Amino acid sequence: MRKYLSTLALSSMILISACSGGGSGGSPDAAASETGLTAPSDMAIESGDGMVTVTWGAASTGRVLERASDGSYYNLYMASTPGVSAASWSSLPGGMMHEDISSPFIHEGLTNDETYCFRMTYVLDDVESDESNEICIAPGPVADSSGGDSGDSSGIGGIDLSPLVGDSDDDGIINLLDNCPTVSNADQADADSDGQGDACDPDADGDGVADSLVDSLAEYLALDTDGDGVKDFLDNCPTVSNTDQADADSDDKGDVCDPDADGDGVWDGIDLGLIDVSDFGIIVDLGLADSDGDGVNDLVDNCINDANADQADTDGDGIGNACDAFSIIIPEIDWGIILPLSP
C-alpha cells in the first residue's frame, strides 16, 4: 500500500502533534492545551485501492501517555477538500465524522485518485482534544516494487506474476489453475480429462477427431437436399426427389436422374421417342446404339453391322472397307472415269 506522511514524518510514519490555537499546528513536544489533552500521536494514513487505512499511537493527558480506554475514544474528521476540522467538517464537500474508532481504522468505498483530507481528536470524559495536523491523500491501486500496478496481482522481486495469478477470462479462476485461461469456463468441465477444458479443447471428447470435423460430418449426414426423406449420402438422386430410389439398370443412379435409365446405351429421350426428320413423315431411329459392338456408335459408324473399330475406308466413299463391295480404286482411263471392279 502507498503510505502518505506529513512533513513532520519521523521515519516512515507521521507524527501528529497537538494544534495550538485553532489547529494551526504545533510540535510533538509542545505543552498540552487548556484541556490537558493532545491529539493522538504518530497518526499515519496508508492508501489502498478505493480505501484508506488510518493508524495512530497514544493520546496524551499532558502528564502521561495512554491509549483510549473506558470513557475515552477517538474521533476522525474527513472531507474531500482541505481545511477539515471538528467545527467545519459538516459544511465541507464529502464531509464526514467517524466517532469512537480504534486503530487501525479502514475507510472503504472511496474514489481512486480523488483527494481526501483527515484530522483526529482524542476524547476523555467528554472533553475533546485539539485536532491533529491535517493529512490529505488520494486512494489508488498500490504500485509494486517494479513500478507497476499491483492492484490485480502480486510480484516477487519485481517480477510481474499477473499472467499466473491474474484471471484473463474473468471466470473467477486464476490463470495458474484455469484449464482454459483465455476462455471463460467457471465449471472447468473436461470430458476427456486431458487437462484442457471442453470450452477450449479442439477434441473435447478425446476420440482423436477434431470436434469441428465431427460437427461438419453430422451436418453432412443430416442433409436431404431434395426433401424426399432419403439423406443425400444414401440418395441415388440427391437433387431430384425419388422416395422409391428406383434404379432399373442398377448403376447406382436413380431412374429419375439417369439419362439412360435402362442401360441400353441410348439416352432415354431418343430411345423412347422416334423423331420425324423429313417432310414426308418418315420416321427413323437415330440409332445411337452400337449394333456391331465395335465401340463406334451407329450414328457415325461407316459399317453399322460389321465390326470395324478402325473405320478404314480406302476408296473414301463413306462406306467402310469391312462392308464395302467395291473398295479398290481403278487407275484413270483417258476419259477420266474411274470404274469400280470386284475385288
TrEMBL record:
Sequence ranges of Gly residues compositional bias: 148-158
Keyword field contains Heme: no
Biased composition (Acidic residues): 189-208
Region Disordered, residue ranges: 139-164, 185-208
Alphabetized GO MF terms: calcium ion binding
Key words, A-Z: Calcium, Signal
Pfam families hit by this protein: TSP_3 (PF02412)
GO biological process: cell adhesion
Name of the protein in its database record: Fibronectin type-III domain-containing protein
